[in-house]
## 1
Amino acid sequence: MDDLTKLSGKAWVAVGDMANWERGFENGIWGIVPELEHHWQKIQKYDLVLFYCIAPISRLFGAGIIRSKFKQTTPLWKEEVRENRVIWPYRFEFDVIHWIPLGQWKDLGIDNKNFNLAVLAGLNPVKEFSKAIG
């Protein structure tokens, strides 16, 4: 997406471990558990999404724009395929606007202590949009 003027004015932090982020970037898709459907219902096209790795390091490492959302019953992530069940059915597609290459997250990723964004669940609203773009 070249035109950032289309941003909706809402932002989210998507949270996951490194293995799931690798898979998410292969497909440009992120998913969340049914317990967070209320957040998924609120996301919309052109929302900003910040990418946060929770393990093995804890860093913000990129950003994207939400393209669409959908519910899916087909396993996608390795854990889902291995267990033959869908764990994260509420999914959205995103376009990457910036990201730090995988091997550099620890050194170049951004520590959340400076921003104090919610990172407890798989998808968290950013209450102050200026923090997301600051």
## 2
Amino acid sequence: MRVLILFLLLAGLVVPAPPGGAARAQSVAVDSIGPDGVILTRSGNRYRVSAQGGRLGLVPAAPPLPERGPDAPGLIPHGRAVEGDRDIALAWLARPTPRYAHGVLGDPLEAAALRVRAANGGGIVEHVLPETQVFEDLYPRLADLDGDGRDEVIVVRAHAARGAAVAVYGLRDDALVPLAATEPPGVPNRWINPVGAADFDGDGFVEVAAVETPHIGGVLHVWEWRDGALHHQGSMAGVSNHAIGTPVLDLHAIADMTGDGRPDILLPDQPRTSLRVLTVTPERIREATRISLPGALGTRIVATGHGFVMGTTGGDLAVVPMRP
């Protein structure tokens, strides 16, 4: 396969000059990267990655519009409502509760309920967990796992005595019901962070990928959705996709990085100082290549027109080509 090239935008970031002026270099320190790829610096400035004259640089980004999120009553702190385009118009986590004392996502609150707004003008449907469980997550993920045109909801559900598992819910007869779940680790305060869902191995079935215990030896697991259940297909150790104590869940990406027409999984290694490009086959998960980073990954990985953009905990910015 073609070698992945890492472009580092470190201290000397080229910022386009005003008309008639010379290009200037500007040192920036990355604070965070938004889902739209806008880079927020520690000094409060906003930039986007741009390619001009055959090289990558930064251009100022427009100020943010006044935030008006979707109507998601009871949304938990740091939570995000996710819009769908099938039978679920909106999904979110609600009913914040301190009853599960783990706090790996930045505060002591978790969600006691999963809520969805049905499409075509439907109302809000809610699934409330018993006292021994919480949704240890910040947002649900929507995917049509079986190709029937309806959304399945993928979310992390934690049990007080058995730890966290990936759970799948769906709208059935106007009720939000559990459809399947992975096996929890069997001990409390063990978390799992979903990567996403796709037909990773090209066999016509959708797989769900997640990293179990991303802070302590992280293991990527892949389950195939078949006959209404999650069937474990493979695993690989030595990865992570979350920094403990932060609300940033998406330190990962899904894209065809090897050019074989199938989506690959991009995950940092356990110390988050390199990116691993992982390819899934029906028999195993293998590493296609590994890319060194200038420090520990600290922001979400965001797909832009110039590649995947990410920042380190030290404030460095890195761009990895989408199709190297």
## 3
Amino acid sequence: SSMPRHYQFTFDQLAANTKALLKKLGIDEATVMGHSMGGMLATQFALQYPGTTRHLVLLNPIGLEDWRGMGVPYVSIDTIYSSELEKDYESIKAYQKSSYYDGDWKQRYEPWA
């Protein structure tokens, strides 16, 4: 399917889409249910629209952390993409060395850097 160039499939956007659908259907309150990734969406919906969420039912949900509530700022996909374009072999290798291998970098790891 096609979509606008800058449309992002974030959980914020998916929750807003769900809210818009409920509004179009004339539904003011709903019991929101979600399983797995749907549980993450249901949780996001309940956080964004507590007045619309009568009950929240979750079955084996993923991603229940409220990163925004913990002060982590939202970063757009365009920003992330731009950041990825700036990376080169040396910066990737430096990240790998600082994050993995417990500081014990070996020459044989080079192909994976």
## 4
Amino acid sequence: MKKVYFIRHGESEGNAGPIRQGRSSSLTQKGLEQSEIIAERCEKLSIDSIISSTMKRAVETAKIILARLKKPVEYSDLFAERRRPKEQIGVLKSDRTALDAEKTIRENFTVSGFRFSDEENFDDLKTRAGQVLRYLQKKPEKNILVVTHGFF
């Protein structure tokens, strides 16, 4: 039986700071330390390969894990964090426009076909989830570690 271990990246500047993060947010010192802890724990698993999101915070986490496990790492956009609308990227978390967008999206998230602006909507996520499942099923490795995000 195949086992897939999903790991969320360590704390990022975007998680800790006042600005909503995009793709290029780095790990904080705390995030680096968290990644070291999870890498140490992963040494107890029989991991055959590592797959990581292409977003900087996940790549940084994966490199820390790779240094301990010495396994091949593959990078894939399939495991990136959900794309948020442009109204929410690079602005203060308290920005009224961003908060209004978040509220509208949350209230309509499962409404088929709903799209606020340029974000990845529920239909997009379902499609990508299907692609992820097919991708993982085709992998020959039995124990796969995936470095990804809190909200797929």
